[in-house]
Amino acid sequence: MASRDQVKASHILIKHQGSRRKASWKDPEGKIIMTTTREAAVEQLKSIREDIVSGKANFEEVATRVSDCSSAKRGGDLGPFGRGQMQKPFEEATYALKVGEISDIVDTDSGAHIIKRTA
């Protein structure tokens, strides 16, 4: 469980041409990532977020299928973390959320994310 100064979050990451590492567990050679624009990644995440917020989809299930992060194997769960452990935009967005809330699109060097604060 997260201590008082930590948060816990899950996320869905879509990598794109601008991502610092153009490979992932589901695209080891980066063929899809290298052809995905940031705009396409954002549009995909907006659609996913809409489906989750409306109840049409489950965050963890979608993360397992779609996320480019290895945390997909855990439904996107990153576990607890404190300040300074994640890229700044990701950290700031997570700390700004209330437990159970889902962020808008968050851009980092890794790609585009939606984040769900879980603790």
UniProtKB/TrEMBL annotation:
Residues 4-119 form the PpiC domain. Keywords: Isomerase, Rotamase. Its EC number is 5.2.1.8. Belongs to the PpiC/parvulin rotamase family. Residues 13-23 have a biased composition (Basic residues). SUPFAM superfamilies: FKBP-like. Prolyl cis/trans isomerase with specificity for phospho-Ser-Pro bonds. The keyword Isomerase applies. This is Peptidyl-prolyl cis-trans isomerase. Pfam families: Rotamase. The lineage of its organism: Eukaryota, Viridiplantae, Streptophyta, Embryophyta, Tracheophyta. The keyword Isomerase applies.
